[in-house]
Amino acid sequence: MSGLLRAGRTPSEVVAAERDPGRAAEITRRYGVEVVDPAAAAAKAGVVVLATKPQDMGTVLAQLAPHVAPGTLVVSVAAGITSAFVAERLAPGTPVVRVMTNTPLLVGEAMSAVCAGPGAGDEHVAAVEEMLRPVGRVVRVTETQLDAVTALSGSGPAYFFYLIEAMIEGGVLLGLPRALAAELVVQTAAGSARMLRDPGAGDPGDSDGAGGAAGEHPSLLREAVTSPGGTTVAALRQLDRGGVRAAVLDAVEAAWARSRELGAS
Ligand SMILES: NC(=O)C1=CN([C@@H]2O[C@H](COP(=O)(O)OP(=O)(O)OC[C@H]3O[C@@H](n4cnc5c(N)ncnc54)[C@H](O)[C@@H]3O)[C@@H](O)[C@H]2O)C=CC1
Ligand SMILES: O=C(O)[C@@H]1CCC=N1
């Protein structure tokens, strides 16, 4: 909702349905968006965005289905829930599009993936892409890729936050004040991400700051930090001893499996 409003939609163009009165009041206070019951929201909407927990999706669809007008575009952001699950609970032919985005959307840096479900044509997917583009990057994927997308970019911010927490703790272990450790680590993360995504940014002649060649390889960037006989190689040996690479592979595989499980339940 915050993204839609920052992308230029007015609060009067959006309505929300929220069963928790505290959260409903917060939505109206923060965004100026009216909160109505799900039936009223569905009846008014040209596009219905389903953003409940996967476990609540069956209930919310049962509430909404009789009120969704034929042809209304229905968008689900729930992890795991297949477009077929959504479509089966709506009038035949209702276009359904699935989205997996991530929380950096809140600062305009989302990584969103979209795919067409039953009844959805190119124009429906394009409409959802247009909704998401102002708040980050958007890629089109197949539905079979969405569990993997969820495991990488959907849950991914949590993996980075986890690593950053651990690095800050490392600074504290070495005696640095926590605030200083946090500043050092967060700027290091932001700078490293910028080198990966916008490698030419900051070069003379890069007037738009958008960078040159896309996507510097992470292995090359890591090698450039790793001086022979230096500090970085000493640290990386410990990461290898700790099995960090294998743990990351196991972690994304666990998220992928859980996403599949949510879809099957
Ligand atoms: N948190 C994340 O980083 C991401 C979450 N998602 C997906 O977004 C969805 C929402 O996740 P969260 O925001 O973390 O969940 P949440 O539980 O914080 O928010 C869902 C809201 O829906 C409300 N709700 C549930 N059933 C309702 C009903 N029948 N009528 C009216 N309101 C109802 C709840 O009161 C709650 O406020 C999930 O399906 C999740 O898989 C997707 C990508 C990233
Ligand atoms: O943890 C979850 O299930 C949701 C989906 C992706 C990120 N958060």
Give the secondary structure arrangement, pairings included.
Layout: H1 2-6, E1 15-16, H2 21-31, E2 34-35, H3 38-44, E3 47-50, H4 57-64, E4 73-76, H5 83-88, E5 96-100, E6 110-116, H6 122-132, E7 136-140, H7 146-154, H8 156-173, H9 178-197, H10 218-225, H11 231-241, H12 244-264
Parallel strand pairs: 1-2, 3-4, 4-5, 6-7
Antiparallel strand pairs: 5-6
Helix pairs in contact: 7-12, 8-9
The structure holds 1,4-dihydronicotinamide adenine dinucleotide and (2S)-3,4-dihydro-2H-pyrrole-2-carboxylic acid.
1,4-dihydronicotinamide adenine dinucleotide is lined by residues 17-20, 23, 38, 51-54, 56, 59-60, 63, 77-79, 100-103, 154.
In short, what is this structure?
The chain has 265 residues and is of the alpha/beta class. The protein has helices at residues 2-6, 21-31, 38-44, 57-64, 83-88, 122-132, 146-154, 156-173, 178-197, 218-225, 231-241, 244-264; strands at residues 15-16, 34-35, 47-50, 73-76, 96-100, 110-116, 136-140.
Features of this protein?
ProC C-terminal domain-like fold; alpha/beta; binds (2S)-3,4-dihydro-2H-pyrrole-2-carboxylic acid; Rossmann fold; amino-acid biosynthesis; 2 domains; binds 1,4-dihydronicotinamide adenine dinucleotide
